[in-house]
Structures are given as structure tokens and as C-alpha cells.
Design goal:
By secondary structure, the chain is of the alpha+beta class. The protein has nine helices and eight strands.
Length: about 260
Amino acid sequence: MAGNSRDPGRSVTARALSVLTAFDAEHARLTLTAIAQRADIPLATAHRLVRELELWGALQRDSDGRYVIGLRLWEIGLLAPVNGRLREAALPYMQELCETTHDNVHLAVRDGLDAVYVEKLTTPRAVPIISRTGGRLPMHATGVGKVLLAHAPATVVHSCCEHGLTRHTAYTITEPGRLGRELQGVRSRGYASANEEMTLGNCSVAVPVQDASGTVVAALGVVAHSVRADVTRLVRSLLPAADGIRQRLADGERVNLDALHR
């Protein structure tokens, strides 16, 4: 047995991870009791694990006694390839897009059935949005998500439909057949759009980002106010930016290969 957990089959590692995953965007600061409840472990176990994680730097305690994610965990997270190589290659193009469009600019990758936002840039003139760097949104209702889903294996699309296509607004696509036709259109025209499908008043447009082999590894998108969004103009700005990112990724691979052969 793994110890005095409500689920005696869970390992110490699994319980420690459950403590960390108790935190999310809506629960960034938690009391010890809240951590125990959300991790589904006894309070005494939570106290021991939280103390160990705090000593290591994965958690830290703020002035009112609540716990937050620690700096050391953030530092380790920055070592993930998606945050380093991809983000570094994309950032100059995202900054240029943000300056020229004055809208929100996103870079996202697929993780399971979600679009994970690697980076988000915005301006004071940009329309308010719910996405955030490091956050997740469903793929079927967002521009970047549709790009990622359109280029995902058929099994992923099937799983997404089986999991349920949540209706976020009256314009969200929730019928599997209609979504399939939409994804086919994304592949044929080379971009995706989602007009008020995630948030009323917002229109997102996105294009695929490929690596040197031609594999779609991310999606680059812009979110603008639906009233003034010019999809054609946004696509014309996004496509060369995505190609620039592809070229920088390819250049990086060549540098790495050259280093290996020295």
C-alpha cells in the first residue's frame, strides 16, 4: 500500500503530483485545507507533502498563509522545449504582428484534447480575451484550436467528439459532422477562423506553424473584435509570420546538427 491516502493504491509521487495539480488558473492561492480537499488526500498527508514541496521550492507560502506555486517549479517549466525553442523562434514575429494589428496574438500547441497557449501578446487597443499564457482552451471553439485539430490524427478528432463538443456561445460548432466539414475546410484553405464561438464579440483567425519536416507543431493566431475583424487581411499577415517561424525552427535544427558533427 502507498500509505494513508483515501485511495491506498496511490503512490507517494501520485499524491505529490495531486497536490501540485490542485492549483489552476481559478485556484492560484490555496489554504492547506483546500489543497487536501482538491487533491483528495487526508489533511495530515497534505501537510507533510506540502511541507516537503515548500522546502524544495515547488510551493511557497504567502503573507496570509496561503500557498502558491514556487519559483523553482516555474524555472523548471521554462526548460520545456515548447517554451524554449518554439517560443524563441516565434516571439519576434508575434511582436511584429501585435504591433501591426494592435490585436491579441497567440501561439498554441496541442496537448491531448486541449489547445495550450505557449505565448500571448496583447495591446491596450486589443479586445479582452479569456486566454492566458500557459492556459488551456477547447480546440473546437478557437481559431488556433481548429488549426491544431485539423492537423491532428483522426483518432484525436474522434476522441474530441466523443468527449463532447461543449457549447460556449450560440455560435459554437457542437455537431461532429459539421466540425468534420469545418476541419476539412481548414486544411484546404490553409487557415481557421472562429467567429464568436468561444466568446461573444471576438473573432479569431489562425494558421498552422510547421517544423523543418513539414509537420504542424503549433498554431499562430490573432483575436480581434468581430465587428472590425478582416479575416483576409489577418491571414495575409499571419502566413508570412508562420513561415518565418518555420524557417527559424529549421535554422535551429541545422545549428544543432552542425554542433553534433564538430
